[in-house]
């Protein structure tokens, strides 16, 4: 196995892990009974902590993979094939983000449901990819160092200024636009701070591109990411307070008192280090396929769990009502079913599309034949009618 393939398996394995964590997290969060949501219960507390790692991991690996594939190309600028492909992918992701939140019931009553305009994970990811593409197009004429420093700086300052922009309401902006920057109107994921994780993932990928072929790079990357993760999880708050004591800048103190962003980034770094360490054992084709079909898995899970257009999902009938045993078994069935359904579809996709094409082609041909037959028959009837009138005269 080549190093390139190893890297790709490592990326897809993290993405597969993140989507599976998302599936079980959404299932348990939606269906577990309120009486079992005990903060003093060790099992629930551990589950809740690890669930909090899912979104940071997903945004970070998104920025990592997108930048890795973008900068890997020898062609730069607009000629880079990954630019157009990335823009199309981003628009598709944003489109599905809005489409999944559309209520057909509201449409039938002549309105659009308010939740349609909420910004969720797909809109946030798609817009983040567009922003990354824009940064690349501005800086590609310089070098990768400028790009690397820029995305790192953006990520750092987005995290650092979270106490300031978290209170923004942005009433002067159209609500559809404001929803990308504030959750005051109901948005679940906003560009700030989540674009910061995308930037840090992009930053990390530049080192894998530059040094990935070095003999001991993966060993060094594992060590560095692990210790950076430990530093962020256990020491980022004290460091921020130390900066505050030296500078008396209140923003450092505010971040230290609510330091979830840097701590979660530390969780992601530790997770990355573990996957890099085990990369040679993560080459299973199923893992790779699941990691490569995350959008489809997300779409199907949204329909099954939340009901999407019609609101007839599992959460409609079992919302906050299941016991831990029921949730545990149900989550396993849910994960296996959704992943199996998506993988089976892509397995027969070519045959399905070919069969659909042939069916449409046959239908069109039959329609043409029927149209020609009907036209000839109608012409014959008209001609006979005219002849009969002529004979009567």
TrEMBL record:
The keyword Cytoplasm does not apply. The chain crosses the membrane at residues 12-32, 52-71, 91-110, 116-139, 151-168, 188-209, 216-243, 255-277, 298-319, 325-346. Pfam families: HGSNAT_cat. Residues 7-221 form the Heparan-alpha-glucosaminide N-acetyltransferase catalytic domain. Keywords: Membrane, Transmembrane, Transmembrane helix. It comes from Aquimarina muelleri. InterPro entries: HGSNAT_cat. This is Heparan-alpha-glucosaminide N-acetyltransferase catalytic domain-containing protein.
């Amino acid at each position: 196995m080549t190093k390139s393939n190893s890297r790709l398996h490592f990326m897809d394995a993290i993405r597969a892990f993140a989507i599976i964590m998302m599936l079980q997290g959404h299932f348990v969060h939606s269906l577990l009974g309120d009486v079992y949501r005990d903060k003093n219960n060790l099992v629930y507390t551990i589950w809740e902590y690890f669930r909090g790692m899912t979104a940071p991991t997903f945004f970070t690996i998104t920025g990592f993979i997108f930048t890795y594939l973008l900068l890997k190309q020898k062609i730069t600028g607009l000629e880079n094939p990954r630019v157009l492909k990335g823009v199309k992918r981003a628009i598709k992701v944003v489109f599905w983000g809005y489409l999944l939140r559309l209520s057909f019931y509201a449409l039938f009553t002549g309105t659009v449901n308010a939740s349609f305009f909420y910004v969720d994970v797909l809109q946030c990811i798609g817009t983040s990819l567009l922003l990354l593409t824009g940064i690349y197009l501005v800086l590609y004429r310089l070098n990768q160092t400028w790009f690397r420093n820029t995305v790192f700086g953006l990520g750092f300052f987005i995290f650092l200024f979270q106490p300031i922009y978290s209170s923004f309401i942005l009433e002067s902006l159209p609500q559809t636009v404001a929803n990308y920057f504030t959750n005051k109107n109901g948005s679940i994921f906003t560009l700030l701070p989540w674009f910061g994780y995308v930037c840090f993932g992009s930053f990390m990928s530049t080192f894998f591109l530059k040094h990935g072929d070095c003999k001991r790079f993966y060993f060094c990357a594992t060590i560095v990411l692990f210790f950076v993760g430990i530093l962020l999880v256990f020491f980022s708050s004290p460091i921020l307070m130390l900066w505050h004591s030296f500078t008396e800048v209140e923003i450092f103190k505010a971040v230290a008192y609510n330091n979830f962003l840097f701590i979660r980034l530390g969780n992601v770094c530790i997770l990355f280090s573990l996957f890099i360490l085990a990369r040679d054992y993560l080459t299973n084709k199923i893992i790779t396929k699941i990691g490569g079909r995350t959008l489809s898995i997300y779409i199907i899970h949204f329909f099954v769990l939340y009901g999407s257009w019609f609101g007839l999902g599992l959460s409609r009938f079992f919302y906050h009502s299941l016991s831990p045993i029921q949730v545990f078994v149900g989550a396993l069935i849910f994960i296996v079913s959704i992943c199996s359904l998506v993988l089976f579809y892509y397995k027969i996709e070519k045959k399905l599309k070919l069969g659909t094409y042939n069916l449409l082609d046959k239908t069109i041909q039959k329609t043409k034949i029927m149209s020609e037959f009907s036209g000839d028959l109608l012409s014959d009837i008209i001609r006979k009618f005219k002849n009969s009138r002529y004979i009567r005269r």
